[in-house]
Amino acid sequence: MDVKDFNFDLPEELIAQDPLEDRSASRLLVLDKDTGEIQHRTFRDIVSYLRKGDCLVINDTRVIPARLYGVKEGTQAKIEVLLLKRRANDVWEVLVKPGKKARPGTVIHFGDGLLTGTVTDVVEEGNRLIRFSYEGIFEEILDRLGQMPLPPYITHQLKDKNRYQTVYAKHDGSAAAPTAGLHFTRELLQEIEDKGIAIAHVTLHVGLGTFRPVKVENVLDHHMHSEFYIVDEEEAEKINRTKRNGGRVICVGTTSCRTLESATGEDGVLKAGSGWTDIFIYPGYRFKILDGLITNFHLPESTLVMLVSALAGREHVLAAYEEAIRERYRFFSFGDAMFIASHPEQEK
Length: 348
Hints:
The chain is of the alpha/beta class. It has 2 domains: about 5-65 and about 160-340, QueA-like (3-Layer(aba) Sandwich); about 65-145, Thrombin, subunit H, CATH 2.40.10. Helix content is about 20%, strand content about 30%. It has helices at about 45-50, 140-145, 185-195, 235-245, 255-265, 305-310, 315-325, and strands at about 25-30, 40, 55-60, 60-65, 65-70, 80-90, 90-95, 105-110, 115-120, 130-135, 170-175, 200-205, 225-230, 250, 275, 290-295, 335-340.
């Protein structure tokens, strides 16, 4: 399976640089995964595509302001640090720019010494381990000094940190937002619950590995990075009950999808628990529990386009992307959304 099979040409002006003022006002492309039929809607219309007895699964991870700017002790050289993964209490795996200035033993000061980091090791892919020292509470210092880790294709400054956060974000730990969830408002979630649709929470702390380009020619040679997930007993039962009762499990975002598919056995039963997942979903994969997906438009040749193609078929997905480009949909993190399911019909 060639990576180039998942390529498409995207005009740069369709990459959304800013979030819409009204989260639920983005556009919604509805795709029938079996026939490839397309409908054009507004995101708040999603309520009419969900049925009583369905379960909407959301990822309640919270993005941390993981980008820090500091200076190297001695030379005062500027260094950018991106927190990726907490390894121990004050030890983090990080991405450092420029890497050559961050050899083991290097000391970096942030915020006039409010936070100090010492590089202790170089690990996989050139990432560093940094041990932080500070007085007070790390999360509060990070909130003060850190910036939201927006993807590189977003060049505009984010005016409000909360716009790169879902309204239901709860558990700190992500280096990127589960962006399909950015379209939901509290009012829209209430409307969905009022219709008799269950909402289940899972947690997957999104790492940057999800967004890294696939650098091998053959898709099967790509190695996914691992991410930490949690599924509580009560939420697992909510989702399993939906399946038992004939309802559909609709995941909000590829992160919720990957969490459920990682924690579900071959018997189709979701198991509560926590752990690391490096699941890679591409065409040929048989979904164990997911029935439908709400997702944004993804980068060409990315693992996320491959996941969506596993659900709806590569031809249907690429045709839908072509249609979205013709119709001037907005792409990527702050862009518009898709709803993918079998026979997605609106209820009046």
